[in-house]
Amino acid sequence: MEIETKRSKLIAWVLQNAKLASSFFFVIVFAIVIIIVRQRYQIVQESKRIYINSILENVKQRFEQLNKTNQNVALTMALTIGSDGKPKDFEEIAERVIKSNPYLQAVQLVPDGVIKYIYPLKGNEKALNHDLFKDGGLNLIEAKKSENLKQLYYQGPVKLMQGRIGVVGRLPIFVKNKFWGFSAVVVTLDSLSSMIGLNVKAKNYQFQLAKNNPVTGKEEFFLSYNKEFKLRHTTSITIPEGDWKVYAIDEDASDNLINTLPILLLGISMTLICSVFFYKFLRKQAEITTILDKRTHELLLAENKYKTIFDHAGVGIGRVNSATGEFLEVNAQLCSLLGYSASELQQTKIKSLIHPDDLKEDRTQFKSMINGQIKNYTAERRYICKDGQAKWAQVFVTLLWSEGEALNNHIIIVEDITSRKDYEQELIASKQHIANLINSIDGIVWEKEIHENGYESSFISNKVYDILGYTPEEWLSDPDFHAKHLHEDDHEDLFNYVNEFLLKQQNHEREYRIRAKDGSIVWVKDIVSVTPSVQHPEKLRGIMIDITAQKEAQDSLSKSFALVREQNERLLNFSHIVSHNLRSHAGNIHGIVALIEEAQTDQEKKELMHLLKKVVDTLNETLSNLSNIVNINTRFDILKEPLNLKQYIEAAISTLNGQIISQQATINNHVAKDAEAMFNKSYLESVLLNLLSNALRYTHPDRKPVINIETSMQDDCVTLIIADNGLGIDLQKNKGKIFGLYQTFNGNNDARGLGLFITRNQIEAMGGKIEVESVLDEGTTFKIVFAPNKVG
């Protein structure tokens, strides 16, 4: 009632002072006109700014596209660099690159900062062999900056050594993580301006390209401009790849104020007209009152409409007593969501409907709201329906009282999201199922992202732990983890192989070795697929399959094949020897028997019988030797056990002690006390006696014999080395005969040619091998490589 009274008084005052009210109206409207004119001026300014910014953004985008193209060109030229650090097919690839990108002035490769390779060479001869790092000027500064940034960086615009003004983009190249030099592209300033749109001619703006000179520290400008350059009328962008600023110069800046003058005059005119109409308008108070009443009626209608919206909203809405938690008002959707009637909900407290697991968090958030810490909150809650079913809902809670007022009531808006939650659970289960499938594959599934500077692992399956012992977290923690754990002999070959197929964007597979966490070497077959894009591959996906057992089986098969082949060769050689020797003895016997039959006297027969007895004794000895050799090569039940080499060597030295003393020989036994070999006792005694007795038998007449005995490790096998300073053997003449049957080399009458043959057969029967090194008149060294120490 009081408000109505004040309003009536105000209306009466206005009607009594129409001229004064009209004057006030004029001042207010004029102020509004000034504001509108100012906003118009600002809009014009903002429109120009947006227009120029869009032009500059277009320049920047065109430069970024040009930069990507130049980077691809530089990378393409860098790929010509081989593992030896020298380019291959530079001229051919450069020619194709220049043809594909005619805006380029030249391409270069600059190892260690020296321009060694340039295409086309014609017209660019002055730049050849120029050392950037010895220049001492801008070239040195800009080249070092490119090296430090490790990305494509542009020097210039500068006057090129070839003539003309241009820019040089240099991309630092690293080979085996060491700085190699630059891959560079040369573009003239005119071509650069054309490519990024700086040569556009327009009546209301022009471009200017600027850069701070790193030597003088002053800003230099490179494009011609026919008027005074004013920074306050410019908008600029920065291009960090060359530390450039591109200015767009507004040449119509002074016209903006003039353009708003007609609007100002129009506004003043309209203000005068409006003031006159306002004066007449005041006389229509009755009409205004009528309109006001009409608006009041419309407001009541709006309230009714709001009530209708509340009752029929598509989400549940409830008004709750903030002190007691009881519902004061609910809509039909909330009743439908919870399964209660409106009267039942109004007799229910909100906390009794919240799931017990969510109640604590809801209390915490509500307490923060009523304490003024937050004004409202949104959360996901489970509500218990009348039938006992739990439904997920997105709930929004806000207070309905102002700051400083007493605790009143609040409103909750509830939206059913049960279906969405069910879908999220299904999605989680699906992802888990896919993960389980990947981890069940009998191989390491992996994925790598391809970047400009290399590859970075983005996924590795859990199978990496079973096969290599690393966790997925360890593998993904280091971008170079895979490369760091490659076998050193496979690293360079695999790197070159993968790069070759990446360039061709082809799928491929390769076998290589990886060092597992426990230090063991694991052979894997890596089956790789390349995910291509328009310009270059984006991802690598593959599976590493453990083929260690297969590789070991192949090695074992190769060794078995080699052993069988060697045994066959030895058997064939043995058969030739047996055939030759027995045929020789048989011929002797046959000849003597024929002579006996023709003998005339008993004395002749007696002499021939004595000769026949010698031949038979020799045959028996040959048969005995051949029997021993056959026994060595055909027995499979020979007992092998770990034998202490030093003890058996000392025993052999003791057996030969008389011979050692008589020849004044020196034997140096440097074999370690714990050195062991898997061997047969009798065979080891025979081998040591044969080798040591030979060293004592074939001594040099001009010096006392010295025999050195020591052990070493060769491919994880114990190696026994026996070296003497005796007569030596002419290996060039006799190398293929040394271990042959009945082969002698030094003309000793008591030499039978059996010792080394039997020694070799005994060693090889134990899975080892024997090697010889000798120099005539200097001495001989025998090396026995024993089989690995595995009991069995």
Please describe the structure with a list of short key phrases separated by commas or semicolons:
5-stranded antiparallel β-sheet, 23% strand, 22 helices, Beta-Lactamase, 792 residues, alpha+beta, transmembrane helix
Description:
With 792 residues, the chain is of the alpha+beta class. It folds into five domains: 50-250, 2-Layer Sandwich (Beta-Lactamase), CATH 3.30.450.20; 313-423, Beta-Lactamase (2-Layer Sandwich), CATH 3.30.450; 441-546, Beta-Lactamase, CATH 3.30.450.20; 553-633, Helix Hairpins (Orthogonal Bundle); 638-785, Histidine kinase-like ATPase, C-terminal domain (Heat Shock Protein 90, 2-Layer Sandwich), CATH 3.30.565. The chain is 47% helix and 23% strand. It is built from 22 helices and 26 strands. The strands form six sheets. A five-stranded antiparallel beta sheet has the order 2-1-5-4-3, with helices on both faces. It has a five-stranded antiparallel beta sheet with strand order 11-10-14-13-12, with helices on both faces. It has a five-stranded antiparallel beta sheet with strand order 16-15-19-18-17, with helices on both faces. A hairpin with a 2-residue loop joins strand 15 (444-451) and strand 16. It starts with a helix and ends in a 7-residue tail after the last strand.
